[in-house]
Amino acid sequence: MGNKSLTLIGLGPMGQAMVNTYLDNGYQVTVWNRTAAKAEPLVARGAVLAPTVEEALAANELVVLSLTDYDAVYAVLEPAAGSLSGKVIANLTSDTPEKAREAAAWAAKHGAKHLTGGVQVPPPLIGKPGSSTYYSGPKDVFDAHEEALKVLTEADHRGEDAGLAAMYYQAQMTIFWTSMLSFYQALALGQANGVTAQDLLPYAKMQFAMMPHFLDLYAQHVDTASYPGDVDRLAMGAASIDHVTHTHADAGVNTTLLDAVSAIFHAGMDKGFAENSFSSLIEILKKQAG
Ligand code: NDP
């Protein structure tokens, strides 16, 4: 798209970072936000504040959304749905894959095309090298607007299904939140033993640095549904997680997280996977047939 002009709706920390990045790159940006005052510093830099959502939509074909969730998307767009025809909505609002699919169908009903986006970086990294966003939706629409989208971050189109970008985003957040909790759990154990977070930090980093090796190996196990157990029997893992849990309990640390992990290991043992690799736990976690 040679036309360096777009509309951006939603001026939370993320939307503001996006508008600033577009302005830095010479784009003409029309903005709208429920709380209009948040537009002031952007208007001072050259953005145009549309007085209504309808006028914001009318200003450009490409409309980027950066709202809290999809309830906010409908709160903003539903009253202005009559102005959606012919628009391309790049919806960089996080929510579930199902909500993204519903929104794509809703947009189509009003004559608009919908690209789902899952931004992988916090606001300060918008416009910086190495940042990336998952996209999904019609490839031709993505291709037509890729140049503008790539001003924000690298753009990784994952497929046509509107839900896919949200699924990749949520999969990544699954890893992020649970890994971070494991870090806090280890720090709580350290604290209970008079060891500071700074003391444990290099060892935690070392552990995370070793993880890619395990990810490569176990992704293969999962895709082939083969859990050989040659070096990592589930029975060994279950004994180990019991030691971990008892260590925390003895130190008086909250074991809610570890009890949940332990329950999954023991469900695998109950299923008869003791001699399999601990990657067999995917059989406990995955969607069950029927
Ligand atoms: P915020 O929740 O801070 O702000 C989002 C915007 O949503 C604001 O402009 C707010 O308007 C608007 N909004 C919320 N509810 C309504 C409503 N009912 N009607 C109208 N407008 C509404 O989010 P962020 O800016 O931090 O993030 C935006 C999106 O980006 C989110 O989906 C988030 O998950 C995603 N994201 C954020 C990251 C981050 O680190 N911040 C990282 C990666 C993704 P108002 O100003 O009037 O309150």
TrEMBL record:
Every NADPH-dependent reductive aminase-like C-terminal domain range: 161-287
Domain 6-phosphogluconate dehydrogenase NADP-binding, residue spans: 6-152
Gene Ontology MF: a single term: oxidoreductase activity
Pfam families, alphabetized: NAD_binding_2 (PF03446), RedAm-like_C (PF21761)
Keywords: Oxidoreductase
Family: Belongs to the HIBADH-related family.
The protein, known as: 6-phosphogluconate dehydrogenase
